[in-house]
Amino acid sequence: MQIDGDGLYLVAGLALLLGAVLPRLLKRYAISAPIAFLGAGLLLGFVVDRGQLSPLAEPKLTERLAELTILIALMGVGLAIDRPIGWRRWAVTWRLLFVAMPACVAAVAGLGWLLGLAPGVALLVAAVLAPTDPVLAADVQVQGPTTGEGAEPEEDDEVRFALTSEAGLNDGMAFPLVYLAVFVATKGAVGDWALEWVAWDLVGKTVIGVVVGAVAGRLLGRMAFSAPLPSLRLADSREPVLALAMTLGVYGLAEVLHGYGFLAVFVAALALRSAERGHDFHEELHSFIEQLEHILTWGILLLLGVAITGGLLKPLDLTGVLIGAALILVLRPLTAWLSVQRTEMRRSERWVTAAFGVRGVGSIYYLAYAGTDFADDLPWLWATVGFTVVLSVVLHGVAATPMMRLLERRRENA
């Protein structure tokens, strides 16, 4: 039986109802909501037109849906972080971003090249799998802003903070690596474009994104909390749509100025958060964004499950399996663990931080964005990325709840 267009409304309604129930139902079990939605998508694939719901058939739709999901998630992540940004306060984050991420990309690209992939393809699969995901990692991230009069932000859970801040930053920082892969595959000799890549794609666009996010977030924060005109103080009128308007507006401005919009949105959320850190309006903004994020995430996972049922993984070979498994089980844990040595984290915290490099919607977006330049290898790339995301969703989803509880017990005992 195939469900027609009108029947999809029924499916959407049931999915939303399921999404409202599942997080509470599964809270005590080692089965995360993403696993359940992925499984539901696999089953749904037997009753819908799978050919029209594949990223290979609808690359632009896939790109836009994943893009919007990441944007909403980045705003939510930025609003959830209590800790003011700083070199020492964010020391673990900088190590994960500037040491672990490049090392992991180099290791995955090297493994792909040793397994017979062309240099551009090996670098692309490493780049699109580089970012840890702000969307699917909710179980190991900070749960929301600490607000209210006299509230003290909690800074003792270094694991949740490190994974949250890393996910917020490296989704934007993956862009230079994706461009590097595209240039390797399409622009010939490295000497012809290396300076351009370093000056513009690595440095220039990053600076624009950070500046746009910081300035826009600070200005909107002042308007929302301390504007001279009461009608402009959105914090007083409790307008949570500010978070969505800010997300889309900041992203659009950064992209128009040719900066990295993902990075701008996350920085803007941090700047807004710092404008009036204890105000409980932040909690309302975060709650509003979190609901939007859940709806978009459920949709992405359902569509991924449908695509897998429709044959997304058919081109998967031993090379793809080895790359995905090595990344999740060996390369990310090892590079991240080495990068956080000699920090104030306990040994068990270092291991958990290293192990939970969740891969998900960010990888889907980057492949949809850059895949047109790799048309001959695209089916294999989607199969490899799809396999890696599923492996991450299942392994990290099962392990997240017990591992976080174990860390909490050890902190209490200490």
Automatic annotation (TrEMBL):
It is a multi-pass membrane protein. It is found in: Cell membrane. It comes from the Bacteria. InterPro entries: Cation/H_exchanger_TM, Na+/solute_symporter_sf. It holds the Pfam family Na_H_Exchanger. GO terms for biological process: proton transmembrane transport. Residues 16-405 form the Cation/H+ exchanger transmembrane domain. One of its GO terms (molecular function) is antiporter activity. The chain crosses the membrane at residues 6-22, 29-48, 68-85, 97-130, 173-190, 202-221, 241-272, 292-313, 319-339, 351-368, 380-401. One of its GO terms (cellular component) is plasma membrane. Keywords: Antiport, Cell membrane, Ion transport, Membrane, Transmembrane, Transmembrane helix, Transport. PANTHER family: CNH1P, NA(+)/H(+) ANTIPORTER 1. This is Sodium/hydrogen exchanger. It comes from Kribbella flavida (strain DSM 17836 / JCM 10339 / NBRC 14399). The lineage of its organism: Bacteria, Bacillati, Actinomycetota, Actinomycetes, Propionibacteriales.
